[in-house]
Write a structure and sequence with these properties.
Shape: rod-shaped
Strand order of the largest sheet: 1-2
Strand content: 5-15%
Amino acid sequence: MQNANQTGQAQCQDQDLLAIIDDLNYNIEGLKQHIATIESPLYDKYHATLLAQYDEQMSLMKYNAGLYDWEQRASDVMMWIVVAVVAAGVVFSGFQLYMAARLGQKADGTFEVSATGMKVTSTIIGVLILAMSIAFMLIFVDKVYTIQTQIPPASISYPAAQGGH
């Protein structure tokens, strides 16, 4: 009885081993086909295309980094120009207010518009210049100085990201 039981177990093990051998032979054939594909001229061209695409993406990233660096330097220069204009406006408005207080002028003024230009005389012109300077700086910082990054649409996909070879 034990001998028959051992023979049955050995036959099951033999069948399992034969199934494993068949699977390995199937995998070997698949690997041989894959190696043949890798060694083909078409695969070489496909691989060269992927490398060229990678190089192009790296070049684009370096270009964008350089562009952001230049934009940051240009923004810094423009910001300092705006600060200088606003500081000049503040100094000029302070000077106007000081002169108006020192001379004791009344709060009356004139406003004239002609073909040659516009003329405003007032003791509060310094306050108007101060308000315009501050408004200019706030608009500049909000609309011009802020860098907004552009995110590419999610619908763009690249072959390497799709699980290619």
